[in-house]
Automatic annotation (TrEMBL):
The keyword ATP-binding does not apply. Signal peptide: none annotated. Transcriptional repressor that contribute to growth arrest during terminal macrophage differentiation by repressing target genes involved in Ras-dependent proliferation. Represses MMP1 promoter activity. It holds the Pfam family Ets. The lineage of its organism: Eukaryota, Metazoa, Chordata, Craniata, Vertebrata. This is ETS translocation variant 3. Keywords: Acetylation, DNA-binding, Isopeptide bond, Nucleus, Phosphoprotein, Repressor, Transcription, Transcription regulation, Ubl conjugation. GO terms for cellular component: nucleus. It comes from the Eukaryota. InterPro entries: Ets_dom, ETS_fam, WH-like_DNA-bd_sf, WH_DNA-bd_sf. The gene is ETV3. GO terms for molecular function: DNA-binding transcription factor activity; sequence-specific DNA binding. Belongs to the ETS family. SUPFAM superfamilies: Winged helix' DNA-binding domain (SSF46785).
Length: 94
């Protein structure tokens, strides 16, 4: 069974960060059938409900801070159907 994937919504009104149009498409990056880690991170960064886990760094364009690395790894493992995922494995992919 395939894990559900969320749509990354393009910000309205020009506020916030701007990414290429293809970065807002669901599930995958160009040339890939599966979501890539960078796209998953972008999804988390854009959702208010994950601000306690990962957030954009204040005053620094394009930099983010992972506040709860174990939770980010757990969420990534759930998305990829890999329950043994941990931050050590995820950080190597970064």
């Amino acid at each position: 069974m395939k894990a559900g994937c969320s749509i990354v919504e393009k910000p309205e009104g020009g506020g916030g960060y701007q990414f290429p149009d293809w970065a807002y498409k669901t599930e995958s990056s160009p040339g890939s059938r599966q979501i890539q880690l960078w796209h998953f991170i972008l999804e988390l960064l854009q959702k208010e409900e994950f601000r306690h886990v990962i957030a954009w760094q204040q005053g620094e364009y394009g930099e983010f801070v992972i506040k709860d690395p174990d939770e980010v790894a757990r969420l990534w493992g759930r998305r990829k159907c890999k329950p043994q995922m941990n931050y050590d494995k995820l950080s190597r992919a970064l």
